[in-house]
Design a protein that fits this description.
By secondary structure, the chain is mainly alpha-helical. It is built from 11 helices and no strands.
């Protein structure tokens, strides 16, 4: 079996597992809306799993193909599948520290700049499980697929053979904005969507999007995943423990 196929299967299976792990969190924060809609919970779970299976399958499949074309990589997974040793300690440390800084910065900006600090009232174990979805599944969609796709499209439009820093930065920033907007559906379950809420979502989540995109570019997808997961742990676990 080819390395790319193995990577695809690993990422796809992980994303499906993450789709299942986030369901208690989503069902909890959307419980009131679901009750009003009178939709069967089991039906929603089935639809979510099917949808996640298809979307993440396509994202992982095409993301890996395009990543090879434009020069993005997954060094840790490649080394593991190829039975090679890799010194990943520095990258791991960088990913964890950057994720912690992102999480703390989002919390502090939300509290002192926006005076909001929306704490989602769910059990900590649900927030913990949801963090895996953020770290793994969202990075497969946002960085591996969308950011890589955007770099690929720009290269084709301008007939460039190799990416440069300008092309990558344009992709990082654009996808970071998209990443912020992508959090609005969950936000809408907690507060009304206004221009202020949209700006807040883009700024706060965009900070993470830029850091994760930069890590994906410089250190590989795994670094972006670890950093994103760490940031979510601060937001979903540490922030509620401190501010409740």
């Amino acid at each position: 079996m080819k390395i790319r196929t193995k990577k695809f299967l690993i990422l796809w299976i992980l994303a499906i597992i993450c789709t299942i792990l986030i369901l208690p969190y989503l069902l909890n924060i959307q419980a009131e809306a679901l009750a009003k809609a009178n939709i069967s919970t089991s039906f929603l779970i089935l639809i979510a799993i099917i949808q996640g299976t298809v979307i993440f399958g396509l994202a992982a499949f095409f993301g890996l193909i395009l990543a090879e074309k434009v020069g993005f990589n997954l060094p840790l997974l490649d080394a593991w599948l190829d039975h090679k040793k890799i010194n990943y300690k520095k990258t791991l440390f960088l990913a964890i520290i950057s994720g912690a800084i992102v999480g703390l910065l989002i919390i502090l900006l939300d509290k002192f700049l926006f005076n909001q600090l929306v704490i989602i009232n769910v059990p900590l174990w649900q927030g913990f499980l949801a963090s895996f979805y953020g770290g793994i599944a969202e990075e497969i969609i946002m960085r591996l697929f969308l950011m890589t796709l955007l770099v690929f499209i720009i290269l084709k439009i301008f007939r460039k053979k190799e990416k440069n820093s300008t092309i990558v930065w344009i992709s990082i920033i654009f996808i970071a904005i998209l990443f912020g907007l992508g959090h609005l559906p969950i936000t809408s379950a907690l507060v009304s969507i206004t221009p202020f809420v949209i700006f807040r979502a883009i700024l706060l989540n965009g900070i993470g999007g830029i850091v994760f995109g930069l890590l994906y570019w410089k250190k590989g997808l795994e670094a972006a995943i670890i950093s994103h997961f760490t940031a979510d742990i601060f937001i979903q676990i540490i922030m509620p423990l401190v501010f409740r």
